[in-house]
Amino acid sequence: MELTIIIVNYRSEKLLNNCLFCIEKTLSSGTSFETILVNNDSKKITLEKSFPFISQIIQTKKNLGFGVANNLGARYAKGKNILFLNPDTLIKKNCIERLLVFLSENPQVGIVGPRIIQSSRGASQPFTCGKKTSLYGILFRNTILKPWNKKNPILVDWVSGTALLIRKAIFEKIGGFDKNFFMYFEDQDLCLLTKKAGYDIVFFPNSSIVHFDGKCWSDNKKQKAAFYQAQDYFFKKHHGKLQASLLKMLKKLAL
Predict the structure, then answer these.
(1) String of b and e for 2-25 (b: at least 16 CB within 10 Å)?
(2) Could you tell me what percent of the chain has a pLDDT over 70?
(3) What integer pLDDT is reported at residue 43 of this predicted model?
(4) CA-to-CA distance for 212 and 87, rounded, in angstroms?
């Protein structure tokens, strides 16, 4: 099988159904694929119809977090490539096929990500690919290059987990998503580990998806806390304890 699409659901049932209808409509019948749903919600998923390409629905007992839930789905993946896809997305025509062709024609590439169009703006969603997050980038909000607006494929350090295609063999080789990230930065970490293993990461604007940015967080304070916790762990892991401590100090001064 060529592809496994893994979708993690949490408080996004309506958007999930729309996403599945879109996959059914746009993905070529010539592509051998399956879809695995991991339901991180305590409420069971109600699908509007039976989708023949869904190989299984995995029900978790609690919200495991984005990375851990995707790891769970990946255990059962039969495809040689895995597309991690958010439920609040709609894929454009030929998007997935173009990503798969690009990956097959470029064996040095380990991960490829499409252009992400923010539905509320009708334009490329900012900060969906780029250089490794650094203190400089955080302090100066460096957006001069804006790689997410590029018109041709480019090498980057990371692409967004909103829609991320990776070779299954590489995903297994690097150990999947780091379970210490509950949400945020797990996609960047996965990409950096893939680069460390010797593979390229590519932003591929010739394919695109629409992102509705479903609001699964009901509490903004908890969302910010999760973001900063993930950011602190990311800096400790990829920049060392000194920079991680400096980042914490700067955040305290800013707040």
Answers:
(1) bbbbbbbbbbbbebbbbbbebbee
(2) 93
(3) 87
(4) 9
Task: Give the contacts of 19 (CB within 8 A, at least 6 positions apart).
Answer: 7, 85, 86, 87, 88, 89, 90, 91
pLDDT at 35 (0 to 100): 98
pTM exceeding 0.85: yes
- The tokens describing 121, both together, are 């703006």
Does residue 236 belong to any structural domain of this protein? no
pLDDT of the residue at 115: 98
pLDDT band at residue 20 using 50, 70 and 90 as cut-offs? very high
Show the tokens assigned to 127.
Answer: 């900060």
Residue 247 located in a structural domain? no
Instruction: Indicate the number of domains in the chain.
Output: 1
Helix, strand, coil tally for the chain in percent (to 5): 35, 25, 40
Phi, psi (5° rounding) for residue 85?
-130, 130
Residue 133's closest CA among 231, 199, 228?
A: 231
- Residue of 174, 225, 181, 217 whose CA lies nearest to 195: 174
Q: What is the rounded CA–CA span in Å between residue 135 and residue 120?
A: 29
239 in any annotated domain: no
Higher pLDDT, residue 52 or 244 = 52
Whether the Cβ atoms of residue 90 and residue 22 lie closer than 8 Å to each other: yes
* Domain that includes residue 44, residue range: 3-215
Could you tell me which residues come within 8 angstroms of residue 196 by beta carbon, excluding any fewer than 6 positions away?
174
On whether residue 221 sits in a domain, the answer given is no
What is the CATH number for 90?
3.90.550.10
